[in-house]
Amino acid sequence: MKVAVLSTVAWRTPPRHYGPWEQMASNLTEGLVAAGLEVTLFATGDSVTAASLNSVVDTGYAETPDQDAKVLECLHISNLMEHAAEFDLIHNHFDFLPLSYTRLIKTPVITTIHGFSSEKIIPVYQKYNRDTHYVAISDANRHPKLNYLATVYNGINLTDFEFNDNAGDYLLFFGRIHPDKGTAEAIQIARQSKRKLIIAGIIQDENYFREKVEPFLDENIIFKGSAGPAERNNLLRNAFCLLHPISFEEPFGLSVAEASLCGTPVIAFNRGSMPELIQHGRTGFVVNTIGEAIEALTMVPGLNRQDCRGWAQSKFSKEKMVEDYIGLYHRLLNHS
Description:
By secondary structure, the chain is of the alpha/beta class. 33% of the residues lie in helices and 16% in strands.
C-alpha cells in the first residue's frame, strides 16, 4: 500500500518545539513505515522521517517569518495533488484547503480534523463531505453537520515520556500562553493553594501575557518559555499535577495525554474532550471552577501514578493510532 501523508508547512515535521498537527503527522508517518507501508511524507524540506520526503518548501513559515504563508501552502498542497495518482491513499493533516482538490483526483483522501478554527470553515467541510472521509480526534470534536468515518485518538511515542512514580512538589501549566488555555486561571489556582507553578509554552497572545501572566511572575510562579522534547519530558514527569483550566472546547489536548504517560495526574476544566482524556477520580479530576480545582489538588495524593500511565498507554499510544488508521485504510480501499 502506497500512502501519502500531508503535513503542514507552518513548522518542521516533527516540530522542534510547538506544532501538535505536525507531531501527529510525524507519529503516524513513522508508525506506518514501521508497519511496512510505503509512505511519502509531504512536509517542509528540513523535516525528519524514515519515509520518503517530498517537499517544495525548505522551512516552515512560522520558523522563517519572512515567507508568505498562503504562497507556501498553495505550492505545498498543489505539489501533493499533482502526484496523487502515484498513491493508493492520501492522508490529509492539513485542515480544509486540500479538500478543494478531492473532486479533481481519483485517489481516496482521509482527512483528520484536528479542530475547527471557526464555524466559518464548516461549509468547506460540508461541500466535500461526500467526496472524502473525515476522522475526528475525539468524540467531543465531532461536528453535527458532518459525517465521520471514525474517531481515532492522537497517538504518542511512549518512549518520549518517562514514567516517574515519585511526584515533585510543583504544579505545571504546559501549553500556549493564550486565554483559551487558561494560563491566568492556572496562576490563580497556584496562588490560592499556595503552591509553586511552572509555566511552559509559546506566547501566542502578547497582550494576555503582559497583562495576565507577567505581573504575577515571582519565585513561586515561574515562566520557562517554550520547552523542547527533553525539557518537556522532565517538566511533565516531575510535576505534582498538570493544570489544564481551558476555556474552549478543546479537540484533544496533547499535554494531558503526555502528562498521564509520565504518571502525572491532570486537573482540567470540563470542556471539549477532557472527559475522554481523563478518568475522573483515577487519573485526575475534571472540574468546573477554580475552587473545585483547588479542592481537587487535595485529592491528588490519593491517585496512583501507575494508573495514569496505564490508562494513557492503552488509549493514546502511537501503536494504537497506527493500528486504527491502517484498519481504516483497508476498509476504504476494499470498499472502493
